[in-house]
Structure formats: C-alpha cells, structure tokens
Sequence to fold (411 residues):
Amino acid sequence: MRVIELIPIALKSLLRTRGRTLMTMLGIVIGITSVIMMLSLGKAAEQFILSQVASLGSDLIYVQNGKGDDNKGGGPDPRLKQTITYEDYQSLKSKSWVKAIEAILINQDIVTFGGTSEFYQVYGTAPDAPIIYNSTVAKGRYVNDDDMAQRARVAVIGDEVARKLFGAEEPIGQRMKIGNTSYRVIGVMAPGGTRFFSSVNTQVYIPVSTMEQVYNMTKYTFLAIKTTYSNINAGKDQIRITIRESHNLDNPKGILSKDDFRVTSQEDAQRNASTVGTILQILLGSVAAISLIVGGIGIMNIMYVTVTERTREIGLRKALGAKRRDVLGQFLAEALMLTMTGGVFGILFGIGFTYLGVLVLRSIQGTWAFLVPWDAVLLAVSVSAGIGIIFGYFPARKAALLNPIDALRHE
Fold:
C-alpha cells in the first residue's frame, strides 16, 4: 500500500476517537511549545546581553576585583587580598591617556520624599559616567569632581524615579532620603537607555566617594575606562601596569607578584555573553525536551491501547490480504499524524507565547527583541517526526505481527 493511501485511512481512524486523539496530541503540543519558547527566549536573552555590551562601544576596558595571572600565565595567588579602591580610581584618572573613567559601587535602599517611599538600586558613580554609558542629563547636572572630593550628599535620579517621588513638583534642589541619609537632588537623567542591564529611568546615582563613606563599602565593584590608545591591548597593558604600581605588586628585588585584579575588554565581555547565551539555550532546551519525551511515552501507551482495541479489525484486514508492512504503515502513519499535527500547533503556540513573553520583558526593559530561530522551528518539526516514528514503531510492530486467526478470536 502506498503512503498516499495510508493518510486517509489513518485520519479516519484518528477521527473516530477525537477526544483521545486531542488528549494524546496535547503532550506533544506542550512539549513543542516549550522547546520553541525556551530556545527563542534564550536567544533573545543572548541578543539582549550582547546589545547591551555592544552599546558601550568596543573601546571600553574593565578593572574588576579578583585574582589575575602573572606574566608567566600562572594561577591566582590566594594569599593576595588587595581589591579595587578609590586610590586605584585616582591613579588611573590622573593618567593623560585615560579619556574617561567610571568607578562603580552598587547597593539597594529605600528612597523617600515626603510621604512617598520606593525601593531602588543605588549606584555610586563618578563624573565621567555619562561619557562611558553614552547617557545624558535632562535637568540639572551630573556628579562632578567637587562632589567626589567633598563626599557631597547629592543625587542624580532617573526619569521614573522623579515622576514617582516628586510627581508634578520640580525635583532639582529638593532634599530626599536614601536610607536614613538626606541628599539634595542635582539632576534628572534623560529617559531611556540602560546601565548594568536595567533601565536608567529607575536608578539613583550618588558620588562613589559618598557611597563608600555612607555605606562603609571599600571594595569597588569595578572600574570602567576609555583610553586614547587605538589598540585595545595597549590600553589594557597600561592599565595593568598602573594598578600593579598602585597595589605595590612590583617589589624592589624585581620579583613579580601575581595580579590581584582582572583587566578585561568589551571583546571579552561579548565572548562571555555568547557563552552564557549558548549555555542558557542548552539548559532551557533540555528542560523542555523532558516534556517532549513524556509526550512521546504518552503516545506510545495510547497506541498500544489502540492496537489492543482494534485487534479484531487488524485480524480482519490481514485475513483479507493486508500485509505486515500495510498494518505497520497504517499505525506509523497514525502516530506521525498525531505528532506532526501536535508539532504544528506547538510551533504556533510557541511563537505566540514567545511574543507575549517578549512583551512582558519589554515592559520591564524595552530593548528585548522578538526572535524565533528558524533552526528551533526545524528542530521542532524534526523532533515531532522522530517521536512519531520512534514511539509509534513498537505499537505498530506489535499490530503488524498479530496472527490473523488469533486476532479474529479476540474479544
């Protein structure tokens, strides 16, 4: 019997038990929907991270806490305790080849004005931050060198922070509390843009020197630097030399101590982001694949039940001349129709739910892209067909091997 002849026979058999057919397909629909959603959102997350990193430009260099390697490529020395400090920031800022430098501390606290209180991320920042992050101040001004030197109690707030706390009032010059400390508002950021993968609109900035004093935070999260060097590696080398001098790692005897910090570039950050994105997609796809396997097992069990219920029908067909391959083909066709139909609906639902998920993410952070990788769709179709063949084969084989005489006697 030709394949084209099996399709209407299989379809007729499936339509006889519509309720069971729909319930059997449901497992595949859920599984394929999960695969499409997980892979698509994983890809969107990777693109989001990469776009955030790329938006800062290719010339940005980071100095982070941690133990680096020596010139010989040796491992980190656990005895070294020095971390990135305000002195490191000052040392680098004084260099003529440094175009801009940002020092970062991060905390969370309650911000209060009048009777309104909100919980926000509070960032210790430096005067060059707008240059580093390509951001602008809509009202007032940003933190300056005098604020840093005086450890001034001043704050720059995001557009949404200004609207929620001050409403129609002019925020510039007003005093608000961050935790238990009073600060004068000196600026409001222009709406839009991101820092640290979250919206500038919902962030609060104070001088990093002030934050160090108020919160007793002596370990800076990291420094971000732009240099005048056209070669990024030359800039990294000069930064490394400066920090080593600041940390007294080059002793008079000429013995080089191992670095207690890390110097990385945007290229390193993009490579790490791609790796994280790939791992995320694999993990999410693996979780979704479990539901597909469960759906496949469900199809196999239902097909076994179907074979048992239709034993007499199978016996009659074989008695009238149907060959084993005809019976095998019919039940395989039924299994394939179940999984492929479920796969199509799963793809459609997956795309739909992915779009809804992206809309939710955009409401939190507006730069998420709606992406459905075509390789994920192709994978879903292939997996649907594979499940139909693999999990449908054994019940189909059982049906094909039935003895027609025994089958006709079956009650």
